[in-house]
Write a sequence for this structure.
């Protein structure tokens, strides 16, 4: 089995992205895992990629998602541990080895409730050096409410072969709905930045009324979970307050310098964008988000 990347590709990526070697190796392992699932004849139609990895590698966000790949699994009735082990196993003496049976974090006999499947025991071998990489692949039983009309293609120039391939994923509308729910219930800066990116670069492809409907439908299915109750969200209208919460936005601005370079990893090209819309500025992110998503919030306010 050939190596998933080369020293030359890594050297080029270091200069192009500004990311450290270890971060790039995590991205290689993550993308190789995504490719494995996307091209698997038995499972490619069941695993649906979402989140930051979908945004960066399909919708070309400048915020790099280094180590996490999130999936929805479309057939929860057959979401069994042995089946997931088989789907995610990769054996190879050289290049890439994935052994989920060694790192399962839930009941191995049955996937139960809404507990995620996660694994982080990945070994990448490059020129005789073994590196255990702390990336995570999380899978939840779920559904895709808005299947894309167009084919989606994942791209990662770090992969030595087949660096572009078709992948199951969410539309911009459904991805935005998930990001709104995530930002309101778990105020991680990456969710707010991702919503600003969608607003800036994909506004013509986003139906904000449809996003509001998807938010309602998703909240109906998951709104009783503890993550919403913990922040006082009991109905969709409560999301309006949570989205633009003054304390949350102030904390985002105050913590911004520490977030840049840790949680928020931008490509150098983002700093070259016009100052008024540059996403490395928390003020820009806040303004773009609040202005663009206000119509969606207005629609949620009455529900």
């Amino acid at each position: 089995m050939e190596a998933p990347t080369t020293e030359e590709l890594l050297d080029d990526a270091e200069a192009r992205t500004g990311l450290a070697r270890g971060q790039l190796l995590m991205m290689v392992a993550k993308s190789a895992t995504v490719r494995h699932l996307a091209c698997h004849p038995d499972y490619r139609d069941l695993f649906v990629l979402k989140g930051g990895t979908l945004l960066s590698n399909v919708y070309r966000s400048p915020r790099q998602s280094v180590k996490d790949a999130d999936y929805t699994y479309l057939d929860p009735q057959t979401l069994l541990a042995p089946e997931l082990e088989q789907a995610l196993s990769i054996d190879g003496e050289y290049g890439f080895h994935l052994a989920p049976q060694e790192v399962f974090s839930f009941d191995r006999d049955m996937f139960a409730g809404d507990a995620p499947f996660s694994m982080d025991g990945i070994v990448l071998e490059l020129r005789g050096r073994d590196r255990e990489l702390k990336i995570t692949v999380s899978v939840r039983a779920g559904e895709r409410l808005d299947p894309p009309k167009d084919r989606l293609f994942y791209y990662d120039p770090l992969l030595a072969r087949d660096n572009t391939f078709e992948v199951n994923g969410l539309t911009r509308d459904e991805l935005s709905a998930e990001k709104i729910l995530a930002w309101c219930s778990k105020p991680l800066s990456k969710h707010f930045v991702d919503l600003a990116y969608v607003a800036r670069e994909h506004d013509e492809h986003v139906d904000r009324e449809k996003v509001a409907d998807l938010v309602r439908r998703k909240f109906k299915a998951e709104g009783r979970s503890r993550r919403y109750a913990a922040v006082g969200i009991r109905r969709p209208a409560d999301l309006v307050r949570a989205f633009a919460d003054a304390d949350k936005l102030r904390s985002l601005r105050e913590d911004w310098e520490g977030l840049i370079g840790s949680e928020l990893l931008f490509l150098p090209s983002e700093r070259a964008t016009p100052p008024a819309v540059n996403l490395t500025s928390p003020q820009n992110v806040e303004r773009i988000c609040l202005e663009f998503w206000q119509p969606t919030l207005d629609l949620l306010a009455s529900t």
About this structure: DSSP finds eleven helices and nine strands in the chain. The chain has a mean pLDDT of 83. The radius of gyration is 19 Å. The first helix runs from residue 7 to 17.
